[in-house]
Design brief:
single chain; 12 helices
Length: 275
């Protein structure tokens, strides 16, 4: 590929990125700071009167501060779910990679099926109802863990395969127990993959709309994405408030991605290039 072709492809990629990502985000920001009359036009014009603070305060105060409650619920849901995915995913991957039995093939198939088979909503609701967890935050945390664990296990296992077994044997000879071997030696070596799992799964859980809608009904149980659904119902013609809500719930995942995008790439490719 010559230099001219690379230049054109680079320019085309930058243009496509601007059209797909920057233009929609700019439209959200501009509409969020407009007054109700101008926002109702849904055009790409400059605001006549900036109402950033007024719209922000009105969205936060709406429906008895439901947005604040939703942020608290989403943070608890994200932290608990992703923490469990990291610990359980890394431990499961370590065992599957180091111990080969006649059940290993079946377990690998079940893990892979978690990425392919779509979630069964009705049976999952039935199980949660029987366990007394339907409509509760712990029940939704278990659902998010179950849906995200397969990806975490496959990612951890690809990296653990590059760690020499001699390291395990040396630690065991020195008297390390299996748990001490994992938490003191193996887990610190998985830092790049841990960061990748944390960022990718945090964005997925925080932005999840479908699972909270099915498994966590009730206004007081709302997550940030469900507040978008509620705002769209209540403020059908108040697009300035609707887009301000979109802007507020977009900022946390965007900040996380901007800070950790290099670590995401490093973690995704670590298992492929090491060793």
């Amino acid at each position: 590929m010559n230099k001219s072709t690379r230049t054109w492809l680079g320019a085309l990629s930058v243009t496509a990125s601007i059209v797909v990502f920057v233009v929609p985000f700019a439209f959200i920001v501009l509409t969020a700071v407009k007054d109700p009359q101008q926002a109702a036009r849904l055009d790409f014009s400059w605001p006549h009167h900036f109402q950033l603070i007024d719209n922000l305060v009105e969205v936060v105060r709406a429906r008895d501060y439901i947005l604040v409650i939703a942020f608290v619920n989403s943070v608890i849901l994200t932290v608990a779910s992703v923490s469990a995915m990291v610990v359980l995913g890394a431990m499961t991957a370590f065992v599957l990679q180091r111990r080969t039995t006649r059940w290993t093939g079946l377990i690998n198939f079940l893990v892979l099926s978690g990425l392919i088979i779509p979630p069964a909503v009705v049976p999952t609701i039935w199980v949660l109802q029987k366990a007394g967890l339907f409509g509760t935050l712990p029940g939704l945390i278990l659902v998010e863990i179950a849906f995200g664990l397969s990806f975490s296990i496959l990612l951890f296992r690809a990296f653990i395969a590059t760690i020499p077994r001699e390291l395990d044997e040396a630690a065991i000879i020195d008297g390390a127990s299996p748990l001490r071997l994992f938490f003191r030696i193996i887990l610190p070596m998985l830092r790049s993959v841990v960061v990748t799992v944390i960022v990718v799964q945090s964005v997925a859980v925080f932005n999840d709309f479908t699972n909270p809608l099915y498994f966590l009904p009730g206004e007081q149980n709302a997550t940030v994405q469900l507040t978008l659904f509620n705002f769209q119902s209540q403020y059908t013609t108040s697009y300035n408030l609707l887009f301000m809500d979109i802007l507020l719930i977009t900022i946390p995942p965007l900040i996380m991605f901007l800070f950790f995008n290099r670590q995401i790439v490093a973690g995704m490719t670590a298992g492929a290039v090491k060793g």
